[in-house]
Design brief:
Strand content: 25-35%
Distance between the termini: 112 Å
Number of helices: 4
Radius of gyration: 43 Å
Structural class: alpha+beta
Largest sheet: 5 strands, antiparallel
Low-confidence stretches: none
Shape: rod-shaped
Mean pLDDT: 77
Helix content: 40-55%
Order of helices and strands: HHHEEEHEE
């Protein structure tokens, strides 16, 4: 081959390599571009996260308001079962009506000392009833379905008592009802 041709080829290769090296970005420039792109992407991520947080906060505030509204409604519904007036006379009438419908006899109805429990008051009433087992069970069912909160405790059943061929029991119990203090 010709020397001139080889020299021309080498010179052409150097020119092409020099052009490629000089025209393309250097490694430093590539690293800087990547770093700049990374910083930009991180800034965009932070913006998106801030927007998500704001949306969650708005939704949380709305959800919180909805939840507070629902809780207030539940409190109003529940407080209907906690009268602000003790209504012992009304309560006695309700118990009397239930016992009459069951065929029970109320032998004792004695209000006990009430106790203040902060926002509500407990009003215990000692009761002695006489009736068949079925009548007593029906009485408890009637009390459980009253439109107020009632707790039956200290149940003592004595018996059997044979009354004209009917087997009866005598039961002592404390029925506690409640009222909200300070009005409802």
């Amino acid at each position: 081959m010709n020397k001139k041709f080889l020299i021309s080829l080498l010179i052409s290769l150097f020119i092409v390599l020099g052009y490629l090296l000089l025209s393309g970005p250097s490694e430093k420039e590539k690293a800087e571009a990547i770093k700049k792109n990374e910083i930009q992407v991180q800034a965009e991520i932070k913006d998106i996260q801030a927007k998500i947080y704001d949306l969650q906060s708005e939704n949380s505030a709305e959800n919180l308001q909805t939840e507070v509204k629902n809780l207030k409604q539940e409190i109003m519904q529940a407080s209907a079962n906690f009268p602000s007036d003790p209504g012992i006379a009304t309560f006695l009438n309700e118990i009397s009506t239930i016992s009459d419908s069951c065929g029970l006899q109320i032998l004792l109805f004695q209000p006990l000392d009430s106790s203040n429990e902060g926002v509500y008051e407990e009003i215990p009433i000692k009761i002695r009833i006489r009736g068949t087992y079925k009548q007593v069970a029906t009485f408890f069912y009637g009390i459980a379905n009253l439109n107020r909160v009632v707790k039956v405790q200290e149940l003592k059943i004595a018996g059997p008592i044979n009354t004209s061929g009917i087997i009866m029991t005598e039961s002592d119990l404390i029925i506690t009802t409640y009222r909200i203090l300070g009005g409802a």
